[in-house]
Amino acid sequence: xxxxxxxxxxxxxxxxxxxxxxxxxxxxxxxxxxxxxxxxxxxxxxxxxxxxxxxxxxxxxxxxxxxxxxxxxxxxxxxxxxxxxxxxxxxxxxxxxxxxxxxxxxxxxxxxxxxxxxxxxxxxxxxxxxxxxxxxxxxxxxxxxxxxxxxxxxxxxxxxxxxxxxxxxxxxxxxxxxxxxxxxxxxxxxxxxxxxxxxxxxxxxxxxxxxxxxxxxxxxxxxxxxxxxxxxxxxxxxxxxxxxxxxxxxxxxxxxxxxxxxxxxxxxxxxxxxxxxxxxxxxxxxxxxxxxxxxxxxxxxxxxxxxxxxxxxxxxxxxxxxxxxxxxxxxxxxxxxxxxxxxxxxxxxxxxxxxxxxxxxxxxxxxxxxxxxxxxxxxxxxxxxxxxxxxxxxxxxxxxxxxxxxxxxxxxxxxxxxxxxxxxxxxxxxxxxxxxxxxxxxxxxxxxxxxxxxxxxxxxxxxxxxxxxxxxxxxxxxxxxxxxxxxxxxxxxxxxxxxxxxxxxxxxxxxxxxxxxxxxxxxxxxxxxxxxxxxxxxxxxxxxxxxxxxxxxxxxxxxxxxxxxxxxxxxxxxxxxxxxxxx
Length: 583
Known about the structure:
41% of the residues lie in helices and 18% in strands. By secondary structure, it is of the alpha/beta class. The strands form five sheets. The protein has a nine-stranded mixed sheet with strand order 7-8-9-4-1-10-11-14-15. A six-stranded parallel sheet has the order 18-17-16-19-20-21, with helices on both faces. Strands 2-3 form a two-stranded antiparallel ribbon. Strand 5 and strand 6 (94-101) form a beta hairpin.
């Protein structure tokens, strides 16, 4: 287990074609088993490997590793292994959190060593390093019994800084422990910046001058931003750096350099990350365009747009993926086939409808093991039209928008014989007095008090990957209504489109990669106009679902437009093109 990742000769031959297709024939000389692509993240959402993160960033991280494995790319994911997993249940329409203990060994991880994090005025923290090899990829995780939950406490708290420092310094030490030298380090959000700091410190410790070391690290580091506003990034005092960061740096010059980045006794991690990463990207075209970040000189930071993608093997129903491949809509790399749009124009509505009906059956199988807001099991009638909302319950995603006009919502549900299923985790530390929490309570009470809504609207608790997948393959219409300009990318909409679920969405995140978007678009100059537009699109979607010809045209239109964006292989290709430029 502690050896090199396994490879497959036939797969390597295929991947050489993939490299050639992106004009990077020499890429294999830059990335290798001992010089892997290193991806750092505070969260991963990969239940099969025991790591259950908070939301979209974690799901994206899991998909990125899976796609790298399918392409036989040497890839290491550095991430903490949190030893408590959060679940949510409802009691009297009030969400409650429960914590389940777990250990890496429960999921096939092997302990490969220990690292030490030094903290001023406290005992050293000894972190266990665990590894799990999956094809050409591997997880390297770190943690200890008191490491805490994901995103516990305030973003600028000392415990959060301890977790960030542990990921960066222990993660980089784990790479060295296994004889790995990163070809590139991708920093997902600024919380992961200490991996780059650890690399910089190693170069200085080995005799490289600070300026030369900074140039080297910058050229081998990518900062991927998932947050639109710099003010939302963590900020720490000089005293906390003296306590948690500087004890783990051996180079006096590096300590002095970092100390010079503080302003008024505080350092925002985005400023440090911007200094250490030459390549910077946002995760959709709109995000890269409007993300408002500035360096210490006040200059606006330019981000390259590399839109997120998903792993088709994970998120597309097997029968649907087989249909796509049989009809040359996607190729062996899960990229769009040469004439995929022509193929989509001639799809058999009857065949696809049969696959969707199978998806409904599988959704109901999943729901047999789930509970709604009343603690009851829900089953959706086979002939019911099904709307769904499956996104994190936060203010800007506006899950309550369909409930602004209860009479209109009831009319839509009754006229079309529809049900509406919702799922999504709330942040772990919200409670009474938080606007999202209070609005969820009000929404659930409204549903409970109305006999039509109580029968047809279902809030499924303890949202996770399995439920997300089941809702994508088993629903007819998906609702995605974030405030325009606040969604960095989002990938839930991709899972809906690729599984031929009609999407109703505002023109935000990755949806806005196309102008105009090829979905049923919610528009309006104000919130009330958006609400009216939403209801109008819900009725349009109902009419399309009930008409075989219109339905086939609508789902084919969506897939035809967004397939090149959705493919996770495209995302990996774009990162490789960005990082490994030809002469």
